[in-house]
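P.,

For your records, the input lines for the assembly:
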Amino acid sequence: MAESSKRGDGIEYATKAELKQAQRQVAMVFDLNKCLGCQTCVVACKTLWTRDEGMEYMWWATVNTKPGKGTPRDWEQMGGGFEDGVPRAGQLPTRRDFGDAWEFNHEEVFFGGKGKDAHLKPSGEPDWGPNWDEDQGGGQYPNSFYFYLPRICNHCTNPACLEACPRNAIYKREEDGIVLISEDRCKGYRFCMEACPYKKIYFNHARQMSQKCIFCFPRVEQGVAPACARQCPGRLRFVGYLDDEDGPIYKLVNKWKVALPLHPEYGTQPNIYYVPPISPPRFDASGNLDESKPRIPTEYLRYLFGDKVDGALATLQAEMAKTKAGGKSELLDTLIVYEWKNLFGPFTQDPAELEPRKA
Amino acid sequence: MQCIRVPTARDRLLDPMASEWSGVAGEAIALGATPLANQPSEYVKASRNEDDVGKVRNVMVQTAHDGNEIFIRLSWEDAQKNVEVTETNMFPDACGVLMPLNGDDAPIDEMGSQGAPVNAWYWRAGAEDEAHNMVAHGLGTTRPAASATIEARSVWGHGAWSVVFARALAGEPEAAVDLAPGRSVRIGFAVWEGSNGERAGIKSFSKEWRELALQP
Ligand code: HEM
Ligand code: SF4
Ligand code: SF4
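Structure tokens returned:
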């Protein structure tokens, strides 16, 4: 089935299998050991894609402290995805759950003539925001811990959103597997929002349609990496094709098996993979380091990334030990990213060097 | 179901509360849940219980024409009006009318089929009354057919919605069922209860076509 037929006439009669079909799959790997929680990716995405009316509360890219409730609040308790291959009921996250877009008293502070008596503050009494529980984390001092979890739509191989839409408005692009919502077809029914277990779909109230991360496809088509990846100062967002055996994605996911999908039990087969965080040892009761126990409980990482996380952590530690002993490690060289552009596979084009598109 | 010919002014017929409507005999139509088996989404099938689908079980239907236009008035009890959609989990109340576009064999419980399209008129509660003319060729295939215009007016009061649809009798090939004095067409009705999260295929509908006879 050609790309054009997925977008155009006849899409309403396509089978879900046809809509899910893709020749290749773009993917990302996020190395959680390097994320600073600086939110540059989040703002890069916001600035590029979600500035219009109706998009105020949208953050297609988010970074939250883990452990934590995340964005939207408690999304991991909202259902969706699949159980034994059967769709599982999910909740509709509300704008409040996402943290909404706070209104501020800019007018009063800047033009109200109140001098130093007026202070910038949100109107009302917000009780949640996209990063409300930032840096709280878990554990007890001196074994408290946290790490950052960046998230975007996973451009799943078996997307729950696509499966849920009664109008076939959601499809995977034939050439790269990017999951898109057709603006022509979407009527804002929001079954996708219920069904996505990662809660990465937003409802645009102004346009009465659902919207989500588009993997910066207009950039990708020009060989430019998605904005969140290119802007990341932590250099941890790898981009490429899953089947590119020379690229870092294939090496990390398939060869070294150190990059794992988030909540694989949701059954959607995500295409965003995570290198799990390695942590220093725990302190025991007498205040000494207990080298046998990591500060971040492995149980918690299993909850996030499944049982394969043990193998991934073991491989990372073995390779680190190898380099400590003076050896060389292809895995660590890949993760270190000596050359910034090596993050981006075939998507190294500098957008500033492209001809601006005619409007 | 008789669609009587009346000399009444159009702005009166367009007003759901106009006293003239009390002189137009109506028919109470029983509505039932759309069958889960027909929902074109494995997710919807797996996540809903048919007993909870289609909260509105009755709609009163009155129709009249003036030789140029047809007016269809639907009214149903609804203690709570759902108009605004300011949260992601809010859905507006809505109603619709369905007619086979050309020929009588279109299945009502699947919104027509590829070979037998249906013409749907759709109103939903909002800041302004908006009505849409649509064509469907089976489940999940509704498309706007904006070449034909539908007007609608609505009033909510005393725990009930009253909605009047108006359209020129003359139809348009591929887009709008052709009506004329003396002609008979098949017709069906649907209501979406916003507070019950009803939208798309989640609604109540008249399980069989009715015959609508336009008085010559
Ligand atoms: C007389 C009965 C019916 C009427 C008047 C009717 C009317 C409509 C209208 C106007 C829409 C578009 C709603 C929108 O734009 O928000 C729609 C959508 C839909 N209807 Fe029906 N319908 C009827 C019966 C049924 C039945 C029995 C089913 C079976 C499950 C069904 C399944 C659907 C589905 C899945 C959608 C959403 C997909 C789409 O937008 O095409 N309908 N219907
Ligand atoms: S993460 Fe959610 S929205 Fe994105 S493809 Fe998967 S199911 Fe769909
Ligand atoms: S830009 Fe990079 S380092 Fe900063 S929060 Fe995003 S993923 Fe983490």
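Two observations worth noting. Chain A has a mean pLDDT of 95. Residues 29 and 273 of chain A are 5 Å apart (CA to CA).

Regards
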